[in-house]
Amino acid sequence: MKCLNCGQENKDSAKVCKKCNRGLSAAPAWFPDFRWHLKTLGFIYLGVVAFYFITTFALRQLPKPYHLREIPPEMTPWLRKGPKFLPEDQLKAPADAPAPAPAAP
Ligand SMILES: [Zn+2]
Questions:
Q1: pTM score, two decimals?
Q2: In the chain, what are the domain boundaries?
């Protein structure tokens, strides 16, 4: 009987291989070879690259200004320095304007 794992010829009555000591009735162990690694890692790499390009393309389809990395200050008034939550006409006045000079006596 030929060993399925190593190919060694054994007696027909033997239960384990005399060379590799593996059971003769068991299927040979499978180990990933170089081609399996190349194929699997290739699929993973292609998937990551495809995900990047698809996500980039999808994000570019968003309406402006959501495609920007920086949010315009008009959209985030709560982050503005100075008085907060004032009406728009009051916000346009400079917050740090110099105080008017006192009237000369
Ligand atoms: Zn063997």
A1: 0.38
A2: 1-30, 34-80
